[in-house]
Amino acid sequence: MAANAPPNDGELSGAISALQAFCGPDLTLTIERIEGSLRNATLDTCAAALAACGTKSEVLSAAGLIKRIAGQINVVIHALGILLCLPRILQPGEAIEYVSLGAGNTGRAFDLETNQRIAEFKFIRWQGGPEVIRQNALFKDFYEMAEHATKKQRFLYVLGTEYPEKFFNGGRAMSTVLSNARFRDRFVAKHGEQYQRVRDYYLPRKHLVAIVDASPFVPELVEAAIEAEDL
Questions:
Q1: pTM listed for this prediction
Q2: Cα dihedral 8, 11, 15, 16 sign
Q3: What would the pLDDT profile of 100-153 be if each residue is shown by its tens digit?
Q4: C-alpha distances in angstroms, 81 versus 76, 105, 110, 115, 162?
Q5: What stretches of the chain adopt beta strand conformation (E)?
Q6: Is the sign of the CA dihedral 134, 163, 224, 77 positive or negative?
Q7: How far is the CA of 166 from the CAs of 132, 161, 169, 183, 197, in angstroms?
Q8: Secondary structure (3-state) at 163
Q9: Within its chain, how far is the Cα of 8 from the centroid?
Q10: Which 8-state DSSP code applies to residue 30?
């Protein structure tokens, strides 16, 4: 299989089986058992000891394959989250003009645009810490919709509104939020230095963008986001 080629069903199931066979029901105990089995091993006995505990190059290849697939999990969660939200958010008479499911907006302005709304989706688990990078990305999504010239409704879908709203209403310095040089230049070119804190920009515009908790629409999203962070 080529390095970047997607695995077929047989390759994926084989990789999972190989890892399960090596790890056993408890990887920690398996590692301890292997460590014990190698005590006093020599050049003459090492190969047999490794074979006995299932150490094979195929297992290493399987681990690499699963790691590569796991690296795409956030994209999968983002795409599936949007798709599963659609039947819960679309209104009678509302028609999708485009949906952008990949990483970034792939040349489109927003994650979703219909004949009635524009929307961005942020399926991440907020933990209440600094979360600087996430806050910066969230602010940019809000900004792009708030500044967009449209009469359509604007929605920012998140997993829980407590921490996003706390951020938007808070006093974090704008200079730290505008960490992306290109975005900062655009922001300053339009607004200059008049906004010193996040809330200074947000409060006059909070009515423009509805911040909506998407977790009731797709309850599995919260658990999926938590599991993805633990990978």
A1: 0.79
A2: positive
A3: 998 665 678 999 999 999 999 999 888 877 789 999 999 999 999 999 999 999
A4: 8, 15, 15, 21, 20
A5: 96-99, 112-114, 117-122, 153-158, 209-213
A6: negative
A7: 13, 8, 5, 22, 13
A8: helix
A9: 24
A10: H
